[in-house]
Design a protein that fits this description.
The complex is a heterodimer of chains A (577) and B (176). Chain A is α/β, with parallel strands linked by helices and 577 residues long. Chain B is elongated and about 60 Å long. The chains are: A alpha/beta (577), B alpha+beta (176).
């Protein structure tokens, strides 16, 4: 149960009061405990902005420089806090610009509520100025969406939006509100939504499935756990840790599961998937029981599906029934919330250890270390590597930072090498792979958790997709640390071109601007490092700063990320070079 | 589990909300599945709509689709059935020149034998209605097309299941 703040209570279940739809929207947000929202004004949402102006001391609206970034900022906010992030935009282009962020939130199960203005209801369908059918457009990428044309619908629909965004498997909800509904007055009262009859947020946990799962796990000789974001979303980190420690089962994570268990935990055997660690990928095809917890067997995790863990019994702990057998057929499916399921199965699991089996992971780690990790973290070559930058960030932040990454080589390197001591510390665009995600997401993350160090690690390509958010950072004095790992290439695409397209570097080389000057143009302190000797002091200075800080690190141009499961290959055919 | 394609009737109980058709059809579109027929009507439960969708696909995939349909917030419950598990019908209308009814004796026999029903007759045309299996409708269509059909339309399949669906029980459980 969430606890209500005193401020929230002022707006919850109060006597009816006659106000406009737009004021009601703001009061709904306050009743839901929203303290900050991200957005961009425009014609069809102006009445709401007028109310945000009046309620300025109560709720903080952050003007992003593009609506896409309002959605990403809301995502960053949600991912680090577990609370619902809120984005707002006007009709037409404002609304369509949100779509990338909404699609990202849908595939990565991030709870956000997007509110869009819409042309007055009498103009709907008439191709009015800035009219788009945003409900139609957003349907495939939202958990739920709805159009409001009457002010009286506002409280119930917004209450439902927040409930649906955060409950069960979370996701994005879009509410489109016509301008006439914003102006219309009605008798306002807000009640939180506690259920929708056609919707089962968490399937009922069946005792028989818990018993069956425990039986399979207890009889396993070479078991392996792969956990995903479901553990974080379900606040089941402690339960997972208890299961791992009681059973002694080596546990690996998907990219979105990162940080649920500290990197340094002796049973944490690393990341699975295309650029994951060698041992968990190879041993996926040797384990006798694969225990999947809150993960969905994404193709980047499984590689070639018909050669994925075919020898193993699959036990799948999952909240979303549609994920069962979607990609990998399970032998035991435990439907339910991760926290509940894991705590119940824990009681039935035998205390155990698997020293020989664990040793296999360690042996393969040594191979990976010698072939890949050593050169990434302690390179002997002249050029800087992305890995050594991560290593330095680990040192300076003591593994306490939240790492926000974009998409590409730097993302894989960051997820592979960042030390995570605290859950909800890896904020990245996993399923959708949205370049441009990191900078705005870092804004949301830092604002939701000001006490935490938030370091955005971004490639030179993705950075330029949302670089304008430096303006948001500057205006709102958001002390995020921005590290651009500049290899003057769209590095991951270039890597594929090198490996699979005979080095035909089609449109991947980037001639970049003076990034330091651009940051300075936004009055953000900025530094550029080109040599190894300057790296440590620069990272130290960045972390020590209480203000936004930009650090460009020029890295080796044509380094590749390994290990790598080539597209279409089996996970055990992972390449080390 | 069957990996060959066959006809499945998908029955979906939903809230009656704008946009839900779009949401459900998008799930088929994503997987490039052609909908053979689609019917939406009221159901036995007040305020609850019933989709009847006919698709040609494998059982493995129909199960996956069903999961993704049921996941939609406003979908109460979805089922899939093979033909022998349901009672199903389609309905059709033929518009035919009235002259033929009197000039072509054969037409009268066809109407009688096919159990088709004359809905209306006027000077210019008459309208024939036939409900039944697809094959019966197709046979009638073949027989009448010899004489010329002014207009023809066939409805989607509608189906009820032989087994109980327990949907009302499910909805009552929510109220408690």
């Amino acid at each position: 149960m969430e606890t209500l703040t005193a401020k929230q209570k002022q707006y919850l279940e109060q006597p009816k009061v006659r106000i406009s739809g737009s004021e009601a929207i703001v009061r709904c947000l306050l009743a839901e405990g929203v303290e900050v929202l991200y957005g961009y004004p425009g014609g069809a949402i102006m009445p709401v902005y007028d109310e945000l102006y009046k309620y300025e001391g109560e709720i903080n609206h952050v003007l992003t420089r593009h609506e896409q970034c309002a959605a990403h900022a809301a995502q960053g906010y949600a991912r680090i806090s577990g609370k619902v992030g809120v984005a707002m935009a006007t009709s037409g282009p404002g609304a369509t610009n949100l779509i990338t962020g909404i699609a990202d939130a849908q595939i990565d199960s991030t709870p956000i509520v997007c509110i869009t203005g819409q042309v007055p209801s009498h103009l709907l369908g008439s191709d009015a100025f800035q009219e788009t059918d945003i409900v139609g457009i957003s349907t495939p990428v939202t958990k739920w969406n709805h159009q409001i044309t009457k002010a009286s619908q506002i409280p119930e629909i917004i209450a439902r939006a927040f409930y649906l965004a955060r409950s069960g498997r979370p996701g994005p909800v879009l509410i489109d509100i016509t301008k006439d509904a914003q102006f219309e007055e009605f008798d306002f009262q807000y009640k939180k939504c506690t259920g929708v009859r056609s919707y089962v947020p968490v399937p009922e946990l069946k005792k028989s499935t818990i018993v069956a799962a425990a039986e399979v796990i207890n009889s396993a000789k070479k078991p392996m756990i792969v956990w995903g974001q479901g553990v974080i979303l379900g606040k089941a980190e402690q339960e997972l840790k208890a299961v791992i420690e009681k059973t002694g089962i080596p546990a690996a994570w998907t990219i979105l599961g990162a940080s649920a268990i500290p990197t340094s935990h002796p049973l944490n055997v690393g990341m699975v998937g295309m650029h994951g660690n060698y041992a968990p990928n190879v041993l996926t095809n040797e384990c006798d029981v694969l225990i999947a917890i809150g993960m969905r067997f994404d193709d980047r995790v499984t590689g070639k599906l018909d050669e994925y863990a075919t020898q193993a019994k699959i036990v799948h702990f999952e909240i979303d029934p549609s994920e069962i057998d979607k990609n990998v057929k399970s032998d035991v499916a435990v439907l339910g919330d991760a926290k509940d399921s894991l705590s119940k199965v824990l009681a039935l699991l035998n205390t155990n250890s698997h020293p020989e089996w664990l040793q296999k992971f360690n042996d393969l780690y040594d191979i990976e270390y010698n072939k890949v990790i050593k050169n990434d973290l302690d390179p002997t070559s002249q050029g800087l590597t992305m890995g050594e930058v991560l290593k330095e960030i680990n040192v300076q932040t003591k593994g306490e930072a939240a790492i926000v990454t974009d998409v590409g080589q730097h993302q894989m390197i960051a997820c592979r090498y960042a030390d995570f001591n605290v859950s909800k510390s890896n904020i990245t665009s996993g399923g959708l792979g949205t370049m441009g995600f990191a900078l705005p997401a870092a804004i949301g993350a830092k604002m939701a958790a000001p006490e935490r160090e938030v370091v955005a690690i971004i490639g030179d390509g993705g950075y330029q997709m949302t670089i304008q958010e430096l303006g948001t950072i500057f205006q709102n004095k958001v002390p995020v640390k921005i590290v651009v790992l500049n290899n003057e290439f769209l590095g991951m695409v270039r890597q594929w071109q090198q490996l699979f397209f005979d080095k035909r570097y089609a449109s991947t080389e980037m001639v970049n601007p003076n990034f330091v000057a651009i940051a300075q143009g936004y009055y953000i302190e900025a530094k550029k490092v080109t040599e190894r000797k300057d790296l440590a002091s620069a990272v130290k200075e960045m972390i020590a700063s209480d203000e936004p800080y930009f650090l460009e690190v020029c890295v080796e141009k044509e380094n590749n990320v390994f290990p790598m499961v080539p597209s279409g290959a089996s996970v055990s055919d992972i390449r080390l070079e | 589990m069957a990996t060959e394609q066959q006809l499945y009737t998908i029955s979906i109980y939903t809230e009656n909300n704008i946009g839900l058709l779009n949401r459900i059809s998008a799930i088929f579109q994503r997987r490039r599945i052609n909908i053979e027929s689609l019917n939406i009507s009221v159901s036995e439960i007040e305020g609850v709509s019933r989709f009847t969708i006919l698709v040609n696909m494998t059982e493995v995939n129909v199960k996956k689709i069903l999961g993704q349909i049921e996941k939609q917030v406003e979908v109460i419950k979805a089922y899939y059935h093979e033909d022998d598990e349901t009672i199903f019908q389609e309905s059709c209308l033929f518009k035919i020149k009235s002259d033929l009814l009197f000039e072509e004796r054969q037409i009268q026999n066809i109407i009688k034998e096919s159990n088709a029903r004359i809905v209306t007759v006027n000077k210019a045309f008459f309208v024939l209605e036939k409900s039944g299996r697809r094959s019966e409708i197709e046979l009638l269509h073949r027989e009448l097309s010899v004489f010329g059909i002014m207009q023809f339309v066939r409805s989607a399949r509608i189906a009820v299941t032989k087994d109980e669906l327990k949907i009302t029980k499910m909805l009552n459980a929510f109220k408690n």
